[in-house]
Design brief:
By secondary structure, the chain is an alpha/beta fold. The chain is built from ten helices and 15 strands. It has a seven-stranded mixed sheet, sandwiched between helices. The chain has a four-stranded antiparallel sheet with strand order 2-1-4-5, covered by helices on one side. Strands 12-13-11-14 form a four-stranded antiparallel sheet.
Length: 313
Amino acid sequence: MNEQRMNEQRKDALTVRGLEMRLPSGERRYAELLPVVRGLDLTVPVGQVTAMVGANGAGKTTTLRAVTGALPFTAGTVEVLGTRIGPARTRPPRGMASLPDISAHPPRWTSQHLARLRRETIPGFDAARFDELLTAFRVPHGRELRRLSRGQATQLGLAAALAQDPQLLILDEPFAHLDPLARTDLVDVLRDYMTRHDRTLLLATHDLDGMERFADHLVVLAQGVDVLSGDVESLCEEFLLCELERSEAAQDAEHSLVGATTTGTGTRALISVDDAVGLPTTASLRRPAVSEIVTHLLRAARTSAATPRRTAR
């Protein structure tokens, strides 16, 4: 079976099952290993934008490092573009490119050094496309990496990744250091990337603005486990945001309020459509934004040692 037919039949670009990651608790040689990712399941559908979100320390970066081969994993299985990778793999799987959270290149390197390395080590690297993207991002050609702003360094790394024309692109906090204009430019470039056949994007982000209009699939991580996953449209239809008077919220706790927060005399919480049946007629209900779904789920996870996993219907 040729590669094109395999791509057409493959439903998921990345499949993770039961992933466990343990990392040292400090810099000491024999520091205790602590669980950072605990039995994580993750599915990234082919041809879609998947946003992985969670609070600091949720395990997003550690997970991305595992699937890209930057860190060995303790247990579980990882399959990238139809190929199962081992726990101690040190090179990214073929067909995948990533933008890590920290650059591993020498600070005195320039974009020319980076382009030369990619040409020599990555088949199909398009140096002309790399230069074109640097110009589009307004990143100075030939400037040493140490003299670039953090936003420019992010754009440089993204240009290098996109110049590989990968089937699967993995980005760790790509919007973190970008100003509003640069963020808009980046989204435009990523939209163009996604127009190509069977291209897939996985990004870990804190920036949920506009995710409803950009992301197709959502994964919410908390305490090293996935507490919710599904396509964005289904998630927005599965939940409601309700506002109750404080006394009503106390009386209707059995209605499975999620991530409730109280201000003044009122309580705001997330609730599933099914659980909303029977709420007081005075309750205010509306469809939540993706950012509101994530916020309330993470608030609930913070106060619960064992948050059940949910998958959108």
